[in-house]
Structures are given as C-alpha cells and as structure tokens.
Amino acid sequence: MVKRWWSLAAAGALAVSVLVPAVPAMAAPGFKVPFPCGQSWSGQTRSAHSPANAVDFNRTDDLGDPVVASAPGTVDRVTDLGGTSYGKYVRINHGGGYSTYYAHLNGFNVSVGQSVGYGKVLGWVGSTGGSTGPHLHYEQRLNGADVQVRFNGTLALYWGTKTYTSNNGCSSGAASATVDTAGTPLTVRSGPGTGYASVGTVADGTKVTIQCQTSGTSVTGTYGTSTIWDRIGSGRFISDAYVYTGYDGYIPNVPRC
Ligand SMILES: [Zn+2]
Question: How far is CA 108 from CA 64, 68, 203, 245, in A?
C-alpha cells in the first residue's frame, strides 16, 4: 500500500460534497515506460504536439532500439501509413477502453491479434511517417481520446523533458517492502486472513520480501483499508494495510498466490 490512512480519512470527509458516479471508471492498466527494464530515456511533452498528450522519447543512438509493450493487452493495429503521420505504428488494446500507440517504428515484431505482456518487443525505434529524426512517439488513450501519460501510476511531466527509467519487464517475481505499524509488532498468519493461526510477528520497520499477493479478510492499518495479503514466506502472510510497497493495490510483476 502507499496511501496513508489519514489521507483516506480526509478524502472520506470530502466525499459528502462530491457526486459519486453510478459506474466507476475501470482502473487504468499499470502502464510502464515502453522500453526494456533498466533503460533510461528522455521523454518530451509539448502543448503543440499532436495529439497534445503524446510523449516523444529519445536517447543517444536510438535508431533500431527495441520498443516494448507498456502493459499487457492485445495488438489490434500493425499499420504502415507510409511517409505521413505515424508511419509504421502499433496499437495495443488493454481493455477497459485503454489503448497505447507506438509510432514512427523502423519495423514490426508483432502481428494483429497477438497477446502481449510487459516487456514484449513490438518493433524498433525509427523515423518513419512524418518524423524528422529517430524517436518513439507514444500515446495513452481512453475511449479513443489521448490522455496524459502515466507510468507506474505517476503522471508524466507536462510540459517539458524528463528522464524516465524503465521497470518494464523486470520480472523478479518478488518485491521488497517495509512493515510500518507505528511501533507494534505485526502478526504473521498462516493464511491470508485474521482468522488464520498466528505463526509469529514481524517488528515495525522490518524489510520483507513479498513472494506473492492474494485477497483475504479486510484489514485497516497504517495505509488504509485493504483486502490484500502478502506472502512473506512459506505459510506466512501479513496484511498489506501495514506494508509500504510503493503501490496502491497489487504490485505489478508480483504474482498472485
Ligand atoms: Zn510525437
């Protein structure tokens, strides 16, 4: 979890004056930087861009560098517009109305209908279409309209140029996290819920390795209310409500138990 309880309490206090939509919007996919794990790229946004919220990515000698899927989905366009617009581009449908665009590619590595996951190479950086030099033109869209880009839930810089480092496809399968209970030892359970036997405790401030996450009984803790339970060993589970992971909800790349 990443949100602190007090911020949720404040949000709750405000909620009385805010209309709640009858059908809540589906959460956005966990979009990641569209380049392989560990790479750093300069991403530029500018209000005169078309569409405005797109990001142009560059790094030194980037021609031919692999471009990867920024979230799991299905490839629904692999199109060559020739010397205009996007040139060679790929579109991925992520469900829930979300899609991403990867344009000016040098070549394609996927075909329409293909399912892709994090880190899947879609094609290579090029300068096709209406491009004056190699770069990746990248967009996130919701129901067809371009939206401001987020990576790992964090809004990109609007407007300007910033370095983005990819954690895309860094599939260790486990995550490091820190127990935060404000002093009290946290009870470890044999399963994902308060009804399971206590099999020990972990002290406040302990660094833990989360092997997998699952849903269990709801717990209210330091980071709000959560039904997520983290497995930190064989037959050892702790409530995610007391664990700082850097993410609200499930951690990308960590498997479900
Ligand atoms: Zn562009």
Answer: 11, 11, 51, 36
Banded pLDDT at 257 (limits 50, 70, 90): confident
67 CA distance to ligand 1 middle (Å): 15
Q: Shortest CA distance to 128 belongs to which of 92, 86, 65?
A: 86
Q: What is the pLDDT of residues 71-125, one digit of tens each?
A: 999 999 999 999 999 999 999 999 999 999 999 999 999 999 999 999 999 999 9
Question: What's the distance, CA 174 to chain centroid?
Answer: 16
Distances 256 to 89, 117, 211, 232 between C-alpha atoms, Å: 33, 16, 9, 13
For ligand 1, a single-atom ion, the residues with CB < 5 A are 54, 56, 137
Could you tell me the distance, in angstroms and rounded to a whole number, from the CA of residue 50 to the centre of ligand 1?
7
Phi-psi region of 234 (alpha: psi -120 to 50; beta: other; left: phi over 0): beta
